[in-house]
Amino acid sequence: MTAAADTSALLRINDLHKGYGPNIRVLRGLDIEMKPGERVVVIGPSGGGKSTLLRVVMGLEQIQQGTVTFAGRPYISTDGRRTAIDPAVRRQIGMVFQHYTLFPHLSIMENLILAPRKVNGEARGAARDRGTKILERFGLAEKADAFPSQLSGGQKQRVAIARALMLDPKLMLFDEVTSALDPELVAEVEAVILQLAAQGMPMMMVTHDMWFARNVASRVIFCAGGVVVEDGPPEQVLGNPREARTREFIERVFHIKA
């Protein structure tokens, strides 16, 4: 692989293996390449490795085999016993989880400015100024001094997205960010993600919302059994899948006749 080829990909995952204990193998030689500006939606059956993939990319999991590079720079590797993760690269990636993970004892503004102050040494005033702008952008300026318990689920998830953006990530990961929300709150969170997509933010996300996948994705990847089964534009993977396993999954789980 040449250096020029490496820099053409934002994220490159090669031969990724991840298991839990001797008998549970979740990822089995998974390969994915993501170009700058792409919006990749990962779908597949439960236990197929979707959330584990995102956690590996975020540097939250040990791996047994494989490599991950980011913008041409080595990021994650292993010698089979210990996983090496470059913390400088990890700081360029933001992740939003299904259950918000906000600090309940901190105000919304304090949730936003904690990481920039601790990780980057940013001055409190400068961090607050940036936090105010992001909250205004997401329609949450009046919630700056509120606490997470005073927010709706949709507001909490928008704050979680805002908090991730405070570190100026080069890639955003979203793991089932609307699945814990009541249906009427889903649209407000999806609107924020669509706004980021329109601004060119690269993202990889796991979702079961097929309408959202069709509207936000530039690519859809179907994973099953810990490998990529099908990879293509949303209209092809969701509307006219080539692989029988993909077709069966879409028809059975989402009741969409492919």
Low-pLDDT residue intervals, each spanning 5 or more residues: 1-6
**Would you list the SSEs in sequence order as H and E?**
HEEEHEEEHEHHHEHEHEEHH
pLDDT averaged residue by residue: 90
Could you give the distance between the termini? 37 Å
Estimated helix fraction? 25-40%
Overall spatial form: globular
Oligomer: single chain
Q: Kindly state the number of beta strands.
A: 11
Give me the secondary-structure topology:
Layout: H1 3-7, E1 11-20, E2 24-34, E3 39-43, H2 50-57, E4 65-70, E5 73-78, E6 83-85, H3 87-90, E7 93-96, H4 108-120, H5 124-137, H6 153-165, E8 171-175, H7 183-198, E9 203-206, H8 210-216, E10 219-224, E11 227-232, H9 234-237, H10 244-253
Provide keyphrases for this structure.
36% helix, 258 residues, globular, 10 helices, 6-stranded mixed β-sheet, alpha/beta, 5-stranded antiparallel β-sheet, single chain
Would you summarize the structure shown here?
The chain has 258 residues and is an alpha/beta fold. It is built from ten helices and eleven strands. Strand 10 and strand 11 (227-232) form a beta hairpin.
